[in-house]
Specification:
23 strands, single chain, 16 helices, 7-stranded mixed sheet, D-Maltodextrin-Binding Protein, domain 2, 3 domains, 5-stranded mixed sheet
């Protein structure tokens, strides 16, 4: 996310002490070939999760850590379509079959074990689905499960998953949302107290790493679980928690961390030029940014300006979105052809978008009665073409985007102000419809169903804060979501997006590529954009003595 260059401050004694203890923990000697269980990898993380127990995880860093401890029944391959049953790979379940239009059977791996040695059972699966659907825990995935999925135990290693209605994404819903947790540990703990339980002994999974320790406010350590079927090459993972992106970036630049999910802006990436210790890995990010117009208020009354479709189209045509995307995130970023990241499987360059055409934009404004005055600003019937862009003050990228839009629209004759507020205030204002326009960013999941919450009439109670509604778009989106053939579904989604773009309820500004920093001593590096570090069990260490120790740490004062 947005990063700003900041002068590096020397690490404190506590950080130096941690670095020294981490280096002492590296048990393997230098090797010329990859080794198993070697070395320590240190991750510079922005923020600290409140929990890593899957039903309680809200932050992406908590998901990153939890995905190495806990497993799903199956995983969707990166870039795979959730309606393609061939795009799923086994995890806790070794195989599965569809019994009828509403029912699936999953068979657990015979070697599936909890990290305390007990077998993973079908009751663990049933218990986990029930926990994720519990309103007391209120897991982010709860609405995808409650009243839609019922799980039953057939025998100790076989689970039946029944759906309330047919859907082409049943296999996705049965596997993606829920990480399996041990019933024998958590069933006796009242769920209202789960979030307050900070006992590391209860964090027991079936995945490739186990929790070793968590010093809250400072760091968390995972160690490879060498008893499982998937034995990681890297023996220890450490998350160093920082308060902001600058601090995380500086941990890497100083050599005190090995991995950073995103270095941020092109200016930050340039700081790695000529660096022999790190390489930059570019991969498509799972989010997109946009400017939304407030089309209507909470009662459905049209906005005095942006209730007009032609005005929205004129303003959209007056912005060079490609220039905005590349200026913010670098040449690998692009303006999306709709409300989606580069990752979403329906992403299609054939989707019709409004072209950048300032002459056409000016004609639309003139036809709408907006005439330039002596100052160059446009007025219609005494009303100036003036409005505000709301952004969160914590996002330098969004503020920069707002200033670029302000300048583009000034050339068209619009007077545009930019208001930056603290993020909680930003969230409150957009949820109450207290804005003209705002710049937002949404995180994609592999399913395209999220488009409904953000851009249909049904989303007025969700994240469709601009109150856009078009029954034609809603109908096309619904039909696309019922199509089981991926190719046919993609055609329907493309038609739906053509309709949305023609209405211009928003300008879809950027679908970035993220640039990660990775120390060169790691091999077989593969990044899953939906959970960037989840493939690290397959990474190798070719020179474990160089991990974290490539730079001699300064002596403690």
């Amino acid at each position: 996310m947005p990063l700003a260059i900041q002068t590096f401050m020397p690490p404190s004694r506590t950080l130096l002490s941690l670095a020294a203890s981490l280096m002492a923990a590296i048990a393997c000697q230098p090797a010329k070939r990859p080794c198993t269980g070697c070395g320590t990898a240190v991750v510079a993380a922005v923020g600290e999760p409140s929990s890593i127990l899957p039903p309680l995880v809200y932050e992406t860093v908590g998901r990153d850590i939890g995905d190495l401890i806990f497993e799903r029944l199956a995983d969707l391959e990166a870039g795979g379509s959730p309606v393609d049953t061939g795009a799923f790979v086994p995890r806790l379940a070794s195989r599965w079959e569809r019994l009828d239009s509403l029912t699936w059977r999953f068979h657990l791996r015979r070697d599936a074990r909890w990290q305390n040695g007990r077998p993973v059972t079908a009751e663990d699966v049933r218990f986990s689905f029930d926990a994720f659907a519990d309103s007391v825990l209120d897991a982010p995935a709860r609405l995808s499960l409650v009243n839609r999925i019922r799980v039953q135990v057939e025998d100790s290693r076989t689970v039946i998953v029944r759906f309330a209605e047919p859907s082409p994404e049943q296999l996705y819903d049965a596997t993606y949302h829920v990480r399996i947790i041990p019933a024998h540990i958590w069933s006796g703990v009242p769920r209202e107290s789960w979030s307050a339980d900070t006992s590391a002994e209860r964090i027991v999974g079936s995945g490739p790493y186990r929790l070793r320790r968590w010093k809250r406010g400072h760091h968390l350590v995972l160690e490879a679980d060498t008893t499982g079927p998937k034995r990681p090459h890297i023996g220890r993972l450490v998350w160093r928690f920082t308060g902001n992106p600058d601090a995380a970036l500086n941990l890497v630049l100083s050599g005190d961390a090995d991995l950073l999910e995103t270095v941020g802006s092109p200016q930050n990436a340039s700081r790695f030029e000529g660096d022999t210790l790190f390489e930059l890995r570019s991969y498509p990010a799972a989010f997109y940014g946009f400017l939304a117009f407030r089309v209507a208020d909470h009662k459905g009354r049209a906005h005095p300006l942006f209730g007009n479709r032609d005005l929205r189209r004129a303003l959209s045509s007056g912005v060079d979105r490609s220039t905005v995307a590349k200026a913010l995130f670098g040449k690998a970023s692009e303006p999306p052809s709709g409300p989606m990241s580069q990752l979403l499987w329906i992403n299609d360059r054939k989707v019709a978008v409004l072209p950048f055409d300032t002459a056409a934009a000016s004609r639309l404004l003139e036809e709408g009665g907006w005439r330039r005055g002596p100052s160059g600003s446009r007025v219609r019937s005494g009303q100036p073409l003036a409005f505000d862009i709301l952004v969160p003050s914590s996002s330098g990228m969004r503020k920069q985007a707002a200033l670029m839009l302000q300048e583009s629209w000034r050339g068209l004759g619009a007077r545009v102000s930019v208001t930056a507020v603290d993020f909680p205030v930003f969230q409150e204002r957009i949820s109450k419809g207290q804005f003209d326009t705002y710049i937002g960013a949404y995180l994609d999941q592999p399913s395209a169903r999220g488009l409904a919450d953000g851009w249909t009439r049904a989303g007025w109670g969700g994240t469709n804060f601009g109150r856009y509604a078009n029954p034609v778009f809603d109908s096309l989106l619904h039909r696309a979501g019922r199509q089981s053939d991926p190719a046919a579904a993609k055609v329907l989604y493309r038609t739906a997006l053509d309709t949305l773009n023609a209405d211009a309820p928003a300008m879809f500004l950027y679908a970035p590529s993220t640039v990660a920093a990775v120390r060169r001593t790691f091999g077989r590096v593969r990044i899953n954009p939906y959970s960037w570090i989840s493939e690290i069990p397959d990474w190798t260490v070719t020179s474990p003595s160089q991990v974290l120790t490539s730079k001699t740490p300064p002596k403690s004062p």
